[in-house]
């Protein structure tokens, strides 16, 4: 077996785009971005988020694809080989190690939220949302969080689905799912947006999200926005590196990265617009936090014609989107295990799945029985994992990759991989050596002093 068939490779560039978009588009767009906008004061957050995508996200997405494709290995071994190739310290491989850990930690809470989505599929299918009011909908969600057994049930199902796809292998498991998923998700989101426009308060929603108010940009909101740009594009931890490692040599990294970033941001912002139009029309609280979409969307589906059908379909699509992201969260670790310990994918997936599932149980208990357990800075288990990964580990991983690609890697190698016009190459170089590091470091510094 040659190396590529052993590892699996994408059938063509299009499937790579779909798979990477599948990694990027997930709960981050539909669940997290909308509620983060509300918690962080609206338009100021959106502005920093968009700037982060443009100035840091797209260049680093390119960097990560490039690093992965050059070595065609899992992130840890890829970083080691890249460091050797550039006569740099082997310690650069710890970027890969940290990335594997980050992915595993994210999945511990991601799977719990994925479970919420699964439970909403079943609720929508049973027509539980018909004519629901805002207060009823909030009570519904609170009841879900208060029930450890229900949460455990759905978290378990989510983990089983994810790890069984992982066990089958990336190319076999993923390509088919992604081909229809993303277009379908866009379509149903447009439908939702149309509905929100007709019954919701779209003007208030647009003002809330887009009227620039620089005075509201706090260091904390900026860090959250930057961190969310990483989370949403799946960068900074090696998911994209490992997907890039399955990409053929002739594909254009820049164009692909731009497509993915546009699709990802557009989907999240559209979801936000649709949701806030409903929030303002139903006197709900924009800063409601992680429950926001679960409190607002049932109101929309509960009142629109064919709402049970569309609601069920919507939550099914979100669950799929979550699963394709979840898979990419563990793929770096699975690739590392398979390529180094030489055990096959199935036992590797089972072992890792059990580990993540167990930590996930602690996460779901933090919404009820362990509500008062605080880990650091007064944060509960769920918040600790979320903040640690999104605002520290992902930006730090991205920072190190940018420095490596911009300053350590030989220019002739990055030029060869990226294959850009000179001016674009210089722009990429500038973002990796200056703009991204300065943005990330200054946000970290702000945080330290705030
Ligand atoms: N980008 C995914 C989402 O938005 C989450 C993710 C983060 C996936 C990091 C892989 C790596 O839901």
What tags apply to this protein structure?
0% strand; binds phenylalanine; 450 residues; disordered N terminus; mainly alpha; single chain; Hydantoin permease
Describe the structure.
There is one protein chain. With about 450 residues, this protein is an all-alpha fold. The chain has one domain (about 5-450): Hydantoin permease (Orthogonal Bundle), CATH 1.10.4160. The protein has helices spanning about 5, 15-25, 25-40, 45-70, 75-85, 95-125, 135-145, 150-170, 170-200, 200-210, 220-235, 240-245, 255-280, 290-305, 305-340, 345-365, 380-410, 410-420, 420-450. The longest helix is centred in the last third of the chain and has 34 residues, at about 305-340. The radius of gyration is 21 Å and the shape is globular. The protein starts with a helix and ends with a helix. The structure holds phenylalanine. Phenylalanine binds near residues 24 and 234.
What count of structural domains?
1
How far apart, in Å, are the first and last alpha carbons? 55 Å
Strand content: under 5%
Spans of at least 5 consecutive residues whose pLDDT stays below 50 are 1-6
The fold-level CATH name is Hydantoin permease
Number of strands: 0
Bound molecules: phenylalanine
What is the CATH class name?
Mainly Alpha
Count of helical regions = 19
Output the structural class.
Answer: mainly alpha
The shape, in one word, is: globular
Could you tell me the radius of gyration in angstroms? 21 Å
User: What string gives the helices and strands in order?
Assistant: HHHHHHHHHHHHHHHHHHH
């Amino acid at each position: 077996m040659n190396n590529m068939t052993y590892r699996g490779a994408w059938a063509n560039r299009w499937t790579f785009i779909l798979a990477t978009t599948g990694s990027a588009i997930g709960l981050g767009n539909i669940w997290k971005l909308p509620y983060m906008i509300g918690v962080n004061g609206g338009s100021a957050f959106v502005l920093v988020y968009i700037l982060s995508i443009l100035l840091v996200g797209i260049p680093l997405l390119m960097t990560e694809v490039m690093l992965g494709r050059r070595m065609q290995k899992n992130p840890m071994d890829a970083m080691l080989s890249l460091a050797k190739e550039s006569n740099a310290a082997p310690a650069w491989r710890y970027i890969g190690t940290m990335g594997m850990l980050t992915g595993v930690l994210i999945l511990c809470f991601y799977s719990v939220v994925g479970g919420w989505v699964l439970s909403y599929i079943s609720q929508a299918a049973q027509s539980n949302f018909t004519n629901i009011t805002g207060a009823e909908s909030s009570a519904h969600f609170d009841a879900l969080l208060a029930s450890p057994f229900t949460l455990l049930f759905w978290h378990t199902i989510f983990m089983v689905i994810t790890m069984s796809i992982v066990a089958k292998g990336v190319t076999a498991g993923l390509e088919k799912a992604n081909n229809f998923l993303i277009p379908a998700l866009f379509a149903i989101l447009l439908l939702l947006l149309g509905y929100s426009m007709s019954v919701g308060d779209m003007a208030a929603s647009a003002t809330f999200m887009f009227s620039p108010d620089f005075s509201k940009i706090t260091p904390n909101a900026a860090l959250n926005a930057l961190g969310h740009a990483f989370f949403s594009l799946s960068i900074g931890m090696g998911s994209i590196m490992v997907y890039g490692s399955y990409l053929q040599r002739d594909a254009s990294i820049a164009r692909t990265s731009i497509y993915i970033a546009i699709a990802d941001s557009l989907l999240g912002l559209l979801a936000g617009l649709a949701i806030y139009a409903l929030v303002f029309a139903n006197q709900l609280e924009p800063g409601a936090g992680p429950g926001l979409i679960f409190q607002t969307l049932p109101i929309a589906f509960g009142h629109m014609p064919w709402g049970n059908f569309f609601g069920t379909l919507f939550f099914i699509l979100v669950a799929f989107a979550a699963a394709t992201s979840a898979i990419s969260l563990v793929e770096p670790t699975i690739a590392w295990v398979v390529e180094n310990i030489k055990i096959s994918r199935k036992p590797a997936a089972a072992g890792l799945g059990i580990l993540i599932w167990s930590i996930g149980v602690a996460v779901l208990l933090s919404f009820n029985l362990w509500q008062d357990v605080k880990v650091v800075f007064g944060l509960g288990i769920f918040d600790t994992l979320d903040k640690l990964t999104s605002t520290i580990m992902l930006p730090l991983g991205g920072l190190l990759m940018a420095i490596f690609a911009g300053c350590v890697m030989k220019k002739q190698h990055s030029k060869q991989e990226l294959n850009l016009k000179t001016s674009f190459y210089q722009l990429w170089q500038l973002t990796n050596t200056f703009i991204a590091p300065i943005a990330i470091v200054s946000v970290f510094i702000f945080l330290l002093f705030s």
